[in-house]
Amino acid sequence: MLRTWRAEYERLLPRVEKPARYLGNERGTVRKDPEQVAVRFALCFPEVYEIAQSHLGLQILYDVLNRRPAVVAERCYAPWVDLEALLRAHGLPLVSLESHLALRDFHVVGFSLQYELTYTNLLTMLELGGIPRRTAARGPGDPLVVAGGPAAFNPEPLAPFLDAVVLGDGEELVGEIADVVAGWDRRDRAAVLRALAALPGVYVPAFFAPRYAPDGRIAEIVPLDPERVTVRKRVLADLDAVPPPAGPIVPTLGVVHDRASVEVMRGCVKGCRFCQAGYVYRPLRERDPEQVVARTRGLMAHTGHEEVSLLSLSTGDYSGVNPVLKALMDELAPQRVAVSLPSTRVDALSPAILEEIRRVRKTGFTLAPEAGTQRLRDVIQKEYREEELLAAAALFADLGWRSLKLYFMIGLPSETAEDVLGIAELAGRVKRAARGRLEVTASVSTFSPKPHTPFQWAAELTVEETVARQQLLRRELGRRGVAFRWHDPHLSWLEGIFARGDRRLADVLETAHAGGARFDGWSDRCRIDVWQEALAAHGLEAGVYLRRRPLDEVLPWDHLDAGISKRFLQQDLARAVAGRLTPDCSIERCTYCGACDFRTVRNLDYHTAGAKGGEHRGEMVSRWAEQLVPGAPGDPLPGWETRTWRRIRTAVAERRAGRLPVAPGPGAAPPSPLPGSPAPPSAAPALAGLAPRADGPTPGVRPHAAAGRGAGRSGEGHAEEWLGAVPSSLVPDAPALPVVQRVRLRYRKVGPARFLGVREVGTALFRAVRRAGIPVAFSRGHHPMPRIAFGPALPLGFSSDDELVDLELTTRLVPATLCEHLGGELPDGLEAVAAWEVARAEPSIERMIAAFRYQIDLSGLEVPPVPAALAAALAAFHAAERWPVRRTNRNGERELDARRAVPVLELLGPLALAVEVAVEPEGTLKPGALLGPLLGLDGDTLALLRVHKVSTRFREPAATVAAVAS
Ligand code: SF4
User: Fold this and answer.
1) Which of 65, 380, 410, 625 is buried most, with the most CB atoms less than 10 Å from its CB?
2) Rounded distance from Cα 597 to ligand 1 centre (Å)
3) From the CA of 282, how far away is ligand 1's center (Å)?
4) Which atom of ligand 1 is nearest the CA belonging to 616?
């Protein structure tokens, strides 16, 4: 019999900072009876809810698994430190959000590994979930612990904790894992691991054993099963084979990416040499543009989000970007839904799109030049020219932007003093190009070399080297009037250790975790002293992991095949050394990286035939790709056409006219390596070509170090091009329709919803209104807002039968239908009760309220008051002429007379009270502020009071135009 811990959690939630993180009552949540399925799958993300729930990959797997009748997938995210402390203090387990089942009660516990600095949270989750940390300690009844995600391409620091690792795309594999687990007898753990290892794309760390040389390097990674000496990643050949989730979870708590998302393509072949995602998720696979539009339409109807994001590593390069954007904006703009391209390039934006971006709600623009000099941009494969960047800055200023953020990295391979200074100089030129109209900020992070990239052999800066560069930049940027933001060098140091770490770091992780390491990616929480001590305790030095690696050294991930051949990476490194670019195989020709098998796995796009000239590509000619959207008169480009797309279209036209060589047709043999590709660099000296230029080094700046930011910057969009990460919500103008009716809605806030704050209720209600198609009006102006006005905020943790909100509508409706429409759209615990029309001239809800009536249940307190003492306290209150209560709010401390402010205080039962609190100009007393001193309850105890608002008393009868509707 499975046990749910919901009631125990409900008692803890009043004591934590954001209880909504742990409710699991969002719209889209799947509920199945966990007792009635063959496989229970926990999808875990080792970060706090706001980050975890933003991750699209987990939503996809949630959808794929829950479509299977015999499987239930539930979510579990890292508890924030306040809840962790409470769980430990009360001996309670970490549970799933949906059923509140302990993690140990699942058959599979799967972690998404997006960032190395979440690893200690994974240990916390295993420990609190009641699962032995090490695989060797797990028995037949324990769950299988599985991990996937970009960081799983080197899972070695976590190897002793993971039963299996998914390499690559998980959509097909999770189902296959569920099938294996469904057939598992729950006794022979080794047998199920063997069955998992037989699935293409699954790595079982226990089946490999590293052997270390006396100097501490890896001498060999020994495959214990001679049949499997390497594990190749899994590729979902066709994204359209797995439709995006049609009914994803719609969070009520504000999350980092609070919008609907549709993945338009996966993989990126631009080849930025620092970008792990760009290599491990090859080849390029696009979704059918028609599917994107249709799915987005359905998604918006389901979620009611105000914004949809077209996700990929470089959305500006998506074949269908022009017509898809045009189609979506034509359809969604009247509904005030914005479309965003979180990761794109400015040369992939057209004048028409830029015009729309100008109306964006956000005030800043972000570009990613990455390096300060052209030489270094050639090394890292950034194609843009400085003139384009300066022209873009001037254009943004012309279009009305006032601030511009520039992303750079320090510590890139072959970096010299000139390159570091080049950052300040380039930022200064950008500022000058905008003629003082832009506030320019340079945001500088430290490069961290990542496995499976051409820079995987490079060194990372030490903390001291990073600090020296940061000091130089602070001075030089300051002199040019450019603001400076920097990444905490200690976090980069830690990220670098684990990104290219080996199994010996598992001991370090455990020791640091025991020493209190948690949420290490949060600079205010990361405790570097704990990590330094943990490394020392196990006789390891950070330098072992951050150093430059010889090209012939065995790397901890060498037995894991991410689809990119080591030979290609070495060739690409040699091209970097020579400052040569590698052609983009989606436009030029194959460079033979190894990702495609040219049968099922290959670049799959929707460009017009011949656009990319490759015999191995999909040749998926689409009417979308041929479609040109007419622009406004005088536009230099045809409306929505981007410069990238125009380049492709022109190239195709020229090929067709015979001016350019035509690519071989379908069925031709796989391409041979690039003519003139350099031979792989020899093992010694490693990175010999990455020498400093003749310029002397700046004091404190190492001339040829390598390091940097890899996949960890923001979770998504690491492969953005030089003008990446454009915060481009496209919000076309739509006329503000006049208000014709004001409707007041009464709703209940009960059950889990009592832990939703004012903002969360507002978001949930607005999205429900959108989904229900209720014609709510918007304010005028640059940032139109829905005309919805709530009554006074209910304190967090209170439930209520009588909450009120006014909605102004642009089309008249019968008020009763409002409740019907909203009925199925609100999250658990919010219930529309009644609706009626009120005169538009009537004062706001807040101004009309005279008092609130509450019922208070004291029986749930850990030590409830003795009934006789309770009665005596009430008697004393009633006998007093004045009852001063101190009340603190953001305006300071004030004194209220509770005898006047609390007209009703009476017993409803031995441990139940009725309280009426008057709403007064000087403020409204919270019941706890009276009951605390009256009954001698401290703040912690007061948080456990069950307070329920029964009704609201108005100053005068509310002027209603129509009768209450239900
Ligand atoms: S194998 Fe060729 S076509 Fe495929 S991703 Fe690699 S370079 Fe591009």
Assistant:
1) 410
2) 9
3) 8
4) 3
Supply the pLDDT for residue 342: 66
Please give the pLDDT value at position 352. 60
Q: What is the pLDDT of residues 683-725, one digit of tens each?
A: 223 332 222 222 333 333 322 222 333 333 322 222 222 223 2
665 C-alpha to ligand 1 centroid (Å):
16
Unique residue bearing structure tokens 């300690």 = 137
- As a whole number of angstroms, the distance between CA 349 and CA 363 comes to 18
pLDDT tens for each residue of 64-81: 999 999 999 999 999 999
Nearest CA to ligand 1 atom 3: 590
Three-class DSSP labels, 872-891: HHHHHHHHCCCCEEEEEECC
Q: Which of 26, 283, 39, 336 is nearest to 174 (CA)?
A: 39
Distance between CA atoms of 742 and 842, rounded to whole angstroms?
10
Is residue 59 within 8 A of residue 203, CB to CB? The reply is no
Q: How far apart are the first and last CA of the chain?
A: 42
Q: Whose CA is closest to atom 2 on ligand 1? A: 590
Least reliable range by pLDDT among 49-53, 288-292, 644-648:
644-648
Return the structure tokens found at 94.
């970490």
Alpha-carbon distances of 682 from 486, 573, 686, rounded to whole Å: 36, 11, 8
**Residue 224 in tokens:** 């214990």
Q: How far is the CA of 601 from the centre of ligand 1 (A)?
A: 10
Three-class SS state of 367: strand
Give the number of the atom of ligand 1 that is nearest the alpha carbon of residue 585: 8
At 567, the amino acid letter reads R
SS (H, E, C) 44-63: EECCCHHHHCCCHHHHHHHH
Q: Say whether the peptide bond before residue 160 is cis (omega within 30 degrees of 0).
A: no
Alpha helices in 554-634 (DSSP H): 566-577, 623-626
Task: Say how many Å lie between the CA of residue 592 and the centre of ligand 1.
Answer: 5
Among candidate residues 244, 249, 279, 234, the one with its CA nearest the CA of residue 265: 244
Give the distance (Å) from ligand 1 centre to CA of residue 273. 15
Residues enclosing ligand 1, CB less than 6 A?
269, 282-283, 585, 590-596, 603, 616
d(Cα 109, Cα 41) in Å, to the nearest integer?
Answer: 6
C-alpha span between 207 and 547 (Å, rounded): 28
Residues 6+ apart with CB under 8 A from 244: 60, 262, 263, 295, 299
pLDDT digits (tens, 9 = 90+) for 926-965: 888 888 888 888 878 888 889 999 999 988 654 444 434 4
For position 656, what pLDDT does the model report?
56
Q: Which two tokens stand for residue 498?
A: 């684990």
**Closest by Cα among 83, 124, 76 to 100:** 76
Residues 755, 795: Cα–Cα separation, whole Å: 9
- pLDDT bracket for residue 665 (50, 70, 90): very low
pLDDT digits (tens, 9 = 90+) for 757-782: 888 999 899 999 988 889 999 887 65
Which tens digits make up the pLDDT trace of 89-125? 999 999 999 999 999 999 999 999 999 999 999 999 9
Please choose from 571, 592, 599, 617 the residue to mutate so as to test ligand 1's pocket, defined by most ligand atoms within 8 A of CB.
592
CA distance 52 to 256: 9
266, 239 contact by CB (below 8 A): yes
Measured from the Cβ of residue 130, the count of other Cβ atoms closer than 10 Å reads 15
How far is the centre of ligand 1, averaged over its atoms, from the C-alpha of 590 (Å)?
Answer: 5
Rounded Cα distance, 885 and 894, in Å = 8
DSSP H helical segments within 671-777, as ranges?
Answer: 758-771
- Nearest CA to 914 out of 949, 867, 885 is that of 949
The first and second tokens of residue 370, run together, are 């990455």
Sign of the dihedral defined by the CA atoms of residues 293, 294, 295, 301, in that order: positive
Atom from ligand 1 closest to the CA of residue 283? 5
